[in-house]
Specification:
This protein has helices spanning 3-15, 19-27, 33-41, 45-60, 101-110, 133-144, 155-165, 169-179, 194-200, 207-219, 236-253, 279-292, 303-314, 331-334, 345-354; strands spanning 63-67, 69-72, 118-121, 149-152, 181-184, 223-230, 256-263, 298-299, 321-324, 358-361. The protein is α/β, with parallel strands linked by helices. It binds ligand V47.
């Protein structure tokens, strides 16, 4: 950093009581729980963003990753009834759907003309689906598009699949890998505290089980992402607790590829009385997570939830990944998202270049992809 800019930043952090955090960041020292709370409570987004940007550039230089991908939400039938979810349906509810393998094949074929290198699959827990459906789903997708990396099944789906497989856990995971599972998405973590678990997602696995499952899968050689659903009933302290729990697990396994803060969308949910998140809070979550995660390489901004405009700005506030072109998205749009369903590669590259970053096309494992 040139001296003038550094002096300005020192003034900014000093005026805002962030000097000790600034010093730790300069020294590459790990931030504490208390530092996390201080950052979340501070409204000096410019100072927090500048610190996060420093860490981002140290870790990822000027690179901004993106992926050409497709989302497949194979069923919205779910037995978990999480209060924050607008996507779930009971089996007999209007709008309930479950795609059989033929329909999955049709969905993949519908976008066969679009070059992609990742397919992201997450869905509800539909207890009517037999175990074989899951490896068959992976095989169907891989058969049609062998060039893609498949990032599928949240820790919650894996719990369910493993339970109904009636086989030893390691065997089930080996079978899913063999069928085409390359990586796992970060969903289902929500807020990893017992209070929030009890309040808004009591029917699915809670903090300890989510973390235990992630640990197990990392140990079996699978990499995953991690997410945090913010902007509902959680306190700022609980956000920090969530980040620290993930950081501790990452110390043990090194299995997390990316962290993605997910902005809560209230429409059509049991929390519809709550307001949407703001651009300010969206950027702050990106920046604070970049500062706390000294051991996770990538901070991803999911433009579907925070808009392409805010995601573009986030590239200067700690994020180094814009996620994907998507094609179709259901979970956030059912909850009232007004963002588009997809971005073209051209639009993605333009957003990144205008932000002064160098676009880098990747697959689900952050391996480089050479554009067709
Ligand atoms: O776990 C549900 C969230 C998640 C709402 O790993 C909501 O690259 C906002 O896992 N408002 C599933 N969010 C999505 C997911 C994901 C998404 C993008 C990238 C990656 C990745 C993973 O969606 C759920 C939940 O946290 N969600 N309802 C809602 N109303």
């Amino acid at each position: 950093m040139i001296r003038g800019m550094q002096a300005q930043l020192e003034d900014l952090v000093f005026q805002n009581g962030l000097s000790s955090i600034y010093e730790k960041v300069m020294e590459g020292e790990r931030l504490s729980y208390e530092d996390g709370v201080t950052l979340y409570k501070s409204n000096n987004l410019a100072a927090i963003g500048a610190l996060a940007n420093m860490v981002r550039e140290r870790k990822n230089g000027n690179t901004a990753y993106y992926v050409r991908n497709m989302h497949i939400n194979y069923t919205n039938v779910c037995n978990k009834f999480c209060t924050f979810c607008a996507f779930q349906r009971t089996p007999i509810q209007e709008g309930a759907y479950t795609w059989d393998l033929k329909q999955i094949e049709e969905k993949v074929k519908e976008f066969m003309h679009v070059p992609i290198s990742e397919i992201h699959m997450v869905a509800g827990i539909n207890t009517k689906l037999p175990y074989e459906y899951y490896p068959d789903l992976l095989r169907t997708v891989k058969r049609l598009r062998p060039e893609v990396t498949i990032k599928a099944f949240t820790m919650i789906e894996i719990y369910h699949i493993a339970k109904i497989s009636k086989k030893p856990f390691d065997e089930t995971i080996a079978e899913l890998k063999e069928a085409g599972l390359d990586a796992l998405p970060g969903g289902g973590a929500e807020i990893l505290t017992d209070r929030v678990h009890k309040e808004i997602f009591p029917n699915k696995q809670g903090p300890d089980e989510w973390l235990a499952m992630a640990k197990r899968l990392h140990e079996l050689g699978l990499r995953s992402n991690a997410t945090m659903l913010y902007g509902h009933i959680e306190t700022l302290e609980e956000r920090v607790e969530h980040l620290i729990k993930l950081r501790e697990l990452q110390d043990e396994t090194g299995g997390f590829l990316a962290f993605i803060p997910l902005a809560f969308h209230p429409e059509n949910t049991g929390l519809a009385h709550l307001p949407s998140t703001t651009g300010f809070d969206d950027l702050k979550n990106i920046a604070v997570s970049r500062l706390l995660f000294d051991n996770i390489d990538h901070i991803k901004s999911f433009w579907i939830m925070i808009t392409p405009r805010v995601a573009q700005l986030s590239l200067s506030f700690g994020a180094d990944d814009m996620d994907g072109t998507i094609l179709e998205e259901k979970i956030t749009h059912d909850a009232g998202a007004r963002t588009p369903q997809s971005l073209t590669q051209k639009e993605m590259v333009r957003l990144i270049k205008e932000a002064g970053r160098d676009p880098f096309e990747r697959n689900a494992l952050y391996q480089p992809v050479t554009s067709a």
